[in-house]
Amino acid sequence: MNSPFTNGIAAQRLDADALTENFSDLHAPLDGHEAAVAADRCYFCHDAPCTTACPTDIDIPLFIRQIATGTPDAAAKTIFDMNILGGMCARVCPTEDLCEQACVREIAEGKPVEIGRLQRFATDTVMAKGVMPFVRADATGKKVAVVGAGPAGLSCAHRLAMLGHGVTVYDAMQKAGGLNEFGIAAYKSTDDFAAREVDWLCSIGGIEIKTGMTLGTDLNIDGLAKDFDAVFLSVGLGGVNALSIYGDDKNGVDDAVSFIRDLRQTSDLAALPVGRNVVVIGGGMTAVDAAVQSKLLGAQNVTIAYRRDRDAMSASRYEQDLASSFGVNLMFNAQPKAIHGNGAVAEIELEYTSSENGKLSGTGETVRLPADQVFSAIGQTLTTDCGLKLEGRKIAVTDTGRTSRDGVWAGGDCASGGDDLTVTAVAEGRDAATDIHETLMGSK
Ligand SMILES: Cc1cc2nc3c(=O)[nH]c(=O)nc-3n(C[C@H](O)[C@H](O)[C@H](O)COP(=O)(O)OP(=O)(O)OC[C@H]3O[C@@H](n4cnc5c(N)ncnc54)[C@H](O)[C@@H]3O)c2cc1C
Ligand code: SF4
Q1: Residue pLDDT, tens place only, 180-189
Q2: Which of 76, 244, 378, 382 could lock 126 by a disulfide, CB 3.0 to 4.6 Å apart?
Q3: Residue ranges of the FAD/NAD(P)-binding domain (predicted)?
């Protein structure tokens, strides 16, 4: 058995009980009484700012009122009407930046209605019963291919199936779910929730998921366009940006997304090796998740180094504070300069930065931190563009997800516009499905 003080990268730093506790649900679910008390705080605002702030436009006051009146099944239906992955979103949405930030009680008292936890209460209630609250419309005879079984693809597939279309979902991985399955922090999605949600969502019928099918090798866009009436691309961002600094090829330098994917898929957390001194480079959710989970695995010292100041970090203040509460050190205005070590990482050299008129530059002053593991979390990239027009580094789309090619839509992280968030991907998948439906049925 190792410990947090064991040098280098090592497995079994903590015992099984400690790991189980560390990776349990970040927020315990509300019980019926707690949900009633939480729902009672809602003013049921007429022009509810919380709903305006929700990318999926869930009627929040309505579902909270339904909980308050003892009808959580109806509340869940209100949520699923707009967001079929409302269960996952209740766990992973940065509500502190979205609905709860806009809540009038947050503005008046600094304590919002707990919208996320109430959403989880309602959606869990229905999913625990295995009830799918929607039925399919009569079959239209139309076939749609969805490429990518993450939140955008699943949301699109469900809406299309509900409208009566036959949907085939292709995914390169052996399991559906996208980053819900392979990316979201383990303590946000416990008890195999992502996989259970996929099964539940598919229980509507009319959706066939084919895993191990990669666009670009097993499939191509011309073939899909020929075989199906419409194609929806939701391939996410599969590539990662490299650090591109001296020494980034040393053992112990890895990308944070792969580390998190391994962590999400392991059946034995104790077997997962982690450094004694871990440094994560980046400022988004991926950086925070890699850092926090390294700490939870038993790393002794974990630092997030971000090149700009705190306010520029894309991880919310809540996520930053969460990392600090787990003992992660946050270092701002520090950019990676070089990685030192003989074959394996021993130290990372960072240069302090300053910003003038938004332009970042190194100050010339450097600092070295001991590190036996360095994770790069500096952004992901599109790997499959199918020759479609791009906007920036993503597939260019209209508001309803139309790409530059007729009959091909795209949404989620791979498509232009919108934040790279689960809830945004769900909204874009849903809206593209509606546009595909209207196009296929000739009403557009
Ligand atoms: C580590 C991490 C943590 C995150 N945490 C949060 C969080 O807490 N809250 C939040 O709101 N958001 C979070 N996000 C962002 C969120 O996960 C994404 O915005 C969301 O998953 C995007 O959904 P998507 O369907 O567009 O893509 P993805 O979820 O990436 O799904 C894309 C799917 O396409 C498949 N695919 C890719 N290429 C091909 C191909 N060529 N052929 C076939 N299939 C292919 C992939 O296997 C994958 O299943 C996080 C992201 C990361 C990386
Ligand atoms: S803003 Fe807050 S109080 Fe008003 S409806 Fe939304 S959750 Fe309720």
Answers
A1: 999 999 999 9
A2: 76
A3: 142-429
